[in-house]
Design goal:
340 residues, two-stranded antiparallel sheet, signal, calcium, Peroxidase
Length: 340
């Protein structure tokens, strides 16, 4: 009789494990095949049931006051996850033991949204002290920013801890640059366990937000070291960008990544790329980089917004599963800028 009970228990455990893996494909094995557990959308249901409502209320106000903030918070999540995993290392300030990632080339003078994360953290600490991690706040803020920009809704697996370290060197080396070639993009995404579908779908996050002149000037004046513009730029679009971004000066002048609908999360980004109106080199090479798979995906997502949304959600949760700190690893920071 005892052996029958044991067998029944084993079958039940196996069924539960399979069900969880089917529901959250990334929750059983992280990138690189390392197993981990502990991420689930209902992680705070009992310990801080107000978390989602608090985060959304802060974001509604912040994005109403500054529509760019939605894109900034989405970008903050990307730049966090691409450096030693989704662990809020990007929020850490310089200290005796920390060299901040905020000073890396991809982040300096451009990464934004810290004050919004701080406001969310302060409100959560009042209601549920020492419960919700800064890493999970970033993940939820990114998701809610997409929702508030008319994009898709999805459940975010939660339960990440915050890192006690940061890496300036990996922030400089692992975050794809705006002038990346298609091969560099593929290589850097693959390093994170992300494939070509993830690359194109996550690049679609550029459907909201802006970029600084310094990130696309090369395309206007000296794309291949011959003092000539990028030949793939549509002429009228190119002329307009020249007025925003002079050859010298104006580094911080901005242009929308998707001028068709700069604050709406949709598939216009892909439609513009097909017309030679992708702003960054890393946008346009998805079509012109002689990579058949990325080219086909750009065309498919330009035609089918629902399919883009579906893959974007899938890729966001996959990215959110890059090396999370769970269990006894990491900590719940009291102040997102400082190790406890």
């Amino acid at each position: 009789m005892a052996s029958v009970k044991v067998l029944c228990c084993l079958i039940a455990v196996a069924f539960l494990s399979c069900s969880l893996l089917e529901a959250f494909p990334g929750s059983g094995h992280g990138w690189g095949g390392k197993g981990y557990s502990g991420l689930a959308p209902e992680f705070y249901d009992h310990s801080c049931p107000q978390a989602n409502e608090i985060i959304m209320s802060v974001l509604e106000k912040a994005i109403a006051e500054d529509p760019r903030m939605a894109a900034s918070l989405l970008r903050l999540y990307f730049h966090d996850c691409f450096v030693q995993g989704c662990d809020a290392s990007i929020l850490l300030d310089d200290s005796a033991t920390i060299v901040s990632e905020k000073n890396s080339a991809p982040n300096k003078n451009s990464i934004r949204g810290f004050e919004v994360i701080d406001e969310i953290k302060a409100k959560l600490e009042t209601v549920c002290p020492h419960t919700v991690s800064c890493a999970d706040i970033i993940a939820l803020a990114a998701r809610d920013s997409v929702i508030l920009s008319a994009g898709p809704h999805w459940e975010v697996p939660l339960g990440r801890k915050d890192s006690k370290t940061a890496s300036l060197s990996r922030s400089n080396s692992d975050i794809p640059a705006p002038n990346s070639t298609i091969q560099t993009l593929i290589t850097k995404f693959k390093r994170q366990g992300l494939d070509i579908e993830d690359l194109v779908a996550l690049s679609g996050g550029h459907t909201i937000g802006v970029a600084r002149c310094v990130t696309f000037r090369q395309r206007l004046y000296n794309q291949n070291g011959n003092n000539q513009p990028d030949a793939t730029l549509e002429k009228t679009y190119y002329n307009g960008l020249q007025k925003i971004c002079p050859e010298v000066g104006g580094d911080n002048n901005i242009s929308p990544l998707d001028f068709g609908s700069p604050v709406k999360f949709d598939n216009t980004y892909f439609k513009l790329i097909l017309r030679g109106k992708g702003l960054l080199n890393s946008d346009e090479v998805l079509l012109t980089g002689n990579m058949r798979q990325t080219m086909e995906l750009v065309k498919i997502y330009a035609e089918d917004e629902a399919l883009f949304f579906h893959q974007f959600v899938k890729s966001m949760n996959k990215m959110g599963n890059i090396s999370p700190l769970t269990g006894s690893k990491g900590e719940i920071r009291k102040n997102c800028h400082l190790v406890n």
